[in-house]
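agent> step 3/5: call structure_predict on target 'Arogenate dehydratase/prephenate dehydratase 1, chloroplastic isoform X2' (Vigna radiata var. radiata).
agent> reason: downstream docking stage needs a structural representation; sequence fetched in step 2, passing through unchanged.
tool.input:
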Amino acid sequence: MALKAVSIWGYSKASPPQLGVGLANSHPTLIWNQRYDFDKCRRWECCCLGVSAQRATTAVEDDEPNVPPLVQSSGAADSVHQNESKGFHKDINQLPKPLTTIDISSSSSSDGSKVRVAYQGLPGAYSEDAALKAYPKCETVPCDNFESAFKAVELWLVDKAVLPIENSVAGSIHRNYELLLRHRLHIVGEVQLRVNHCLLGLPGVRKEDLKVVVSHPQALDQCEKMLNDLGVVKIGARDTADAAQTVASNCARDTGAIASSRAAKVYGLDILTERIQDDDENITRFLVLARDPIIPGTDKPHKTSVVFSLEEGPGVLFKALAVFAMRDINLSKIESCPLKQRPLRVVDDSNQGNSWYFDYLFYIDIEASMAEPRAQYALGQLQEFARFLRVLGCYPMDTVL
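tool.output (status=ok):
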């Protein structure tokens, strides 16, 4: 049938129950001007956008590893009063407290007088740097974990959320891929941030004086060469900003932290040395999430993020990806994750009995705008092979580091 307009949509022949997305109750959000004809597009329905990771990147950490007590140097308590009198660190009690699920359920949204951007972690986290890169004059709101940041946007406590999706060293953050399907948020932008790991310590401390270094395990791994040269004991922390706060709070002069340069300013620490990561090209990509999508254009490079599952059959994934290749659409990323609630598919083989296979969700980023007919036609053809299909967002590419 001929359609008069096309929306950003989600499609499902049999929507997987574990996704928690009710397509039938969703509503149209974006309308394009192009007209085109699909025989099978009658089954498309408009829905909210929404996307998800490997455990954590250095920029933002969601895991809470088992962290042994911080090693306290002898004489550290004697130096507390001296250090406080010098004003080496700021009053951390005045810093914003991370939002928790309990806080969100009992709070009200802001008055919208300025853009409020949620991020995971404490003040000084790499995610806060990413939020300020996206919105230089925004009010940043720390959240206790990734899901709290999603909920803060959904419940109108903040306007946007900036969350990591992949790191060039640590890989993808699968937790956020999962949350993008659970929550009805739209990807409206991306931020690429170069990670600059700094070794921080109390004022007047030299790096040679350090016996212990605290940070998130990913950051410790990414700075292994320098830490081995120093011969220090490595202790894991919940995230890099938390490590900086710990050093500032405990006033341990033989303890340093690996964190961002912004964390040094927030907690009143000295940067003993910077760019200590083993790999100089350490870059984290963040997604900007909002309640409403943006109107994509063609005036600048755009990405469109999609998640889908496929019918069984030989060569189905090849056919699904070929719909982009035949239209000269570049595929910049593909990520596969097993379906959590229904990971295995049983196939009856008459010769050898039943065979068991994983069923997957495929996340892809294509370098095309949904305002382009070629992208619309490609996704229209993709639904011929897809059992479930959802467009997570169409947004401008970040081409500046």
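agent> step 4/5: record observation. Residues 1-9, 14-89, 101-113 have pLDDT under 50 and may be disordered.
agent> proceeding.
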